[in-house]
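Structure in, sequence out. Go:
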């Protein structure tokens, strides 16, 4: 199989410049290990830093060389979770949505690669100053949590030009053409979430994966209604991109009206619907790249196909040249 050698593959010692997004409680041990075994780097979805999730997730990965990611502001309340994760000697730790300063020294001292996900160039520059080895430049196209502002293409280009460390593109990337485009913009690799959410090994029920297969980028919306109903509340300016449903149609842009008895009633209804698998109310995080998901494949198939498509796209770029 052809290989794409970049600063990211050399730094992490991986075959392919593809990282699994550490989606909270979706990127479990099986999925992370499968991505790593296929030549990328799988990152466990440590999410809200719930300590009792960490050890079983690493066990599920077996002997796979993987990393882990945390929501940084959640780690502030549970810093011991980082200590627990580092005891497993992860290849990398990714921090997102908060200040990495309190945790960077311990991560570096443990010998793990420090990956910081950011949405602004000034955040990227500060993360590098704190010791980040890799910057994930996340555009507003991304599924799950992020923030409005920079689109992926322009942001990745600006970050790659300005930073002395490998930049990884995130948001709107789910196939080889996206990987090829990111490399052409100066990125050293990509981080993919939505595409792997539909992978066979992802921790998600079949109706959710089917919703991703059937979903379209035009069906995604950005907002905070699900965070308000299911908790925990996210700090501004962060919210999430998901597939639209009855809840987003009713409360999108009106989340602040959910207070008091009305909030409690909607919360109870959401929890009941979530347990029942009611896809009319259940959250399905998804980025604009959801158009490209045609079926639920094994993670290894996704990795290999992405690389093969990228090689083909890069090789075929010469057809645009004229003498």
């Amino acid at each position: 199989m052809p290989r794409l050698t970049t600063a990211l593959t050399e730094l992490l010692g991986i075959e392919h410049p593809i990282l699994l997004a550490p989606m909270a409680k979706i990127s479990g041990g099986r999925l992370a290990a499968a991505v790593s075994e296929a030549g990328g780097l799988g990152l466990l979805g440590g999410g809200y830093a719930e300590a009792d999730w960490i050890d079983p997730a690493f066990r599920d990965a077996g002997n796979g060389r993987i990393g882990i990611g945390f929501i940084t502001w959640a780690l502030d309340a549970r810093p011991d979770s980082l200590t627990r994760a580092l005891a497993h000697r992860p290849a990398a730790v990714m921090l997102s949505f908060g200040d990495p300063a309190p945790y960077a020294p311990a991560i570096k001292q443990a010998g793990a690669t420090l990956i910081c996900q950011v949405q602004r160039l000034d955040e990227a520059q500060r993360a590098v100053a704190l010791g980040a080895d890799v910057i994930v430049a996340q555009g507003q196209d991304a599924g799950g949590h992020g923030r409005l502002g920079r689109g992926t293409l322009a942001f990745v280009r600006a970050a790659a030009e300005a930073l002395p460390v490998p930049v990884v593109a995130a948001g709107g990337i789910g196939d080889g053409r996206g990987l090829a485009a990111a490399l052409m913009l100066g990125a050293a690799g990509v981080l993919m979430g939505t595409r792997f959410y539909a992978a066979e090994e992802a921790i998600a029920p079949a109706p959710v994966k089917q919703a991703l297969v059937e979903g379209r980028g035009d069906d995604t919306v950005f907002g905070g209604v699900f965070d308000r109903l299911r908790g925990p509340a996210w700090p501004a300016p962060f919210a999430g991109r998901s597939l639209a449903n009855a809840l987003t149609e009713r409360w999108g842009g009106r989340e602040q009206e959910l207070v008091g008895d009305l909030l409690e009633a909607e919360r109870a209804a959401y929890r009941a619907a979530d347990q029942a698998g009611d896809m009319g109310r259940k959250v399905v995080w998804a980025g604009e790249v959801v158009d490209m998901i045609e079926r639920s494949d094994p993670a290894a198939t996704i990795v290999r196909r992405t690389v093969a498509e990228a090689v083909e796209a890069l090789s075929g770029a010469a057809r645009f040249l004229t003498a």
